[in-house]
Amino acid sequence: MRVAFFGQTGPYAPHAFTELMRDPRPYTLALVVEGKKSARPEHRLRDPRRPITGTTLAELAAAHGVPALISTDVNDPKAIAIVGDHQVDLIVCVGFDRLFSSVLLATARRGGINAHPSDLPRLRGPAPIFWALKEGRTRMALSLHALDPREDHGPIFAQEWFAPSSLATGDTIFRAAGKLAGKMLVGLLAKAVDHDLVGTPQDHRRATRAPRPKPEDALVRPHEWTCEALVRFACGAPYFRTPWLTLGGDNYFVRRGLKAERGRRVPGEHAVMGDHLVVQCRDGTAHLEIQT
Fold first, then answer.
1. I need a labelling partner for 116 at 20 to 30 A (CA). Which of 12, 70, 145, 181 fits?
2. 2-206 maps to which CATH number?
3. pTM given for the model
4. How far is residue 135's CA from residue 129's CA, in Å, rounded to a whole number?
């Protein structure tokens, strides 16, 4: 079974790819497609025999002897033709910034699988980790589902939960999600070698969306938060959008969370000491590092 792996350089897809390349494996990674953001169109097939000079997804592929297509638009006919030339059975996607067209999906004989870091159908869209943190979650999920032209829409093949640490950054959460995605995909692909994959249809009535956050989405009103939830958000959210607070007529922009103290109070609702901000929450105080 020939597999094309789609992803982007960063803390998510490369970790899943590394898990998929562990031996033994009953499938062949026939092609890696790295999405690239650029104003100039590009569809470049990297020769796996070239020397390895970095740690991008395409360079990781080359290190394992897998050809890699670097593309600014995977739905462009040129990119689709290159994918089609590799005659793949399945597309595997781990983090991508655009939907796949039906024409692109048709290049894979048996369809595609997407690894989405949420408990689908909740938090569909590009920024589920940000919104999970804003909801105050202490556990997150990774869903493997069938690819179709709609956003995070297809039947679910598998879903597992993981619990980031209380001070986990967005980068750290993505790394954990990527490793989990890879391990889950290894099992699912092994099953797909001999059996057609059958998923459970999503309950679309329960669907929610996780768009890319705007500045106003990162505004924090401490009295609405528990101190532990605010510290988690302050640690993880800056990867996506800098959290900020308006207190006493001043704006404060958060670098990271430091600690939560349940049951404590701060006189005047907040205190500033250099780059250390202490704010009063519903159930205690949150200590934050701020930009100065």
1. 70
2. 3.40.50.170
3. 0.95
4. 10
Dist CA 178 CA 116 (whole Å): 10
Residue 220 carries which side chain, given as an amino acid letter? V
Q: For residue 99, what are its two tokens?
A: 């939907």
How big is the CA angle at 217 (ends 211 and 218), to the nearest 5 degrees?
A: 120
Residue type, 273: M
pLDDT band at 123 (very low <50, low <70, confident <90, very high): very high
Residue 47 pLDDT exceeds 90: no
Quick check: helix, strand or coil at residue 237?
helix
Q: Check residue 289 and give its pLDDT.
A: 98
What's residue 78's pLDDT?
Answer: 96
Q: Are 81 and 49 spatial neighbours (Cβ–Cβ below 8 Å)?
A: no
**Cα 256 from Cα 239, distance rounded (Å):** 10
Residue 52: pLDDT band (50, 70, 90) is: low
Cα gap 114→152, rounded to integer Å:
8
Which residues, in sequence order, are bridge partners of residue 273? Answer: 276
pLDDT digits (tens, 9 = 90+) for 210-269: 999 999 999 999 999 999 999 999 999 999 999 999 999 999 999 999 999 999 999 989
Cα 204 to Cα 107, 122, 151, 201, 271: the distances in Å are 27, 9, 12, 9, 45
Q: Give the C-alpha separation, 132 to 107, whole Å.
A: 34
Region(s) of the chain under CATH 3.40.50.170:
2-206
Sign of CA dihedral 113, 114, 118, 123: negative
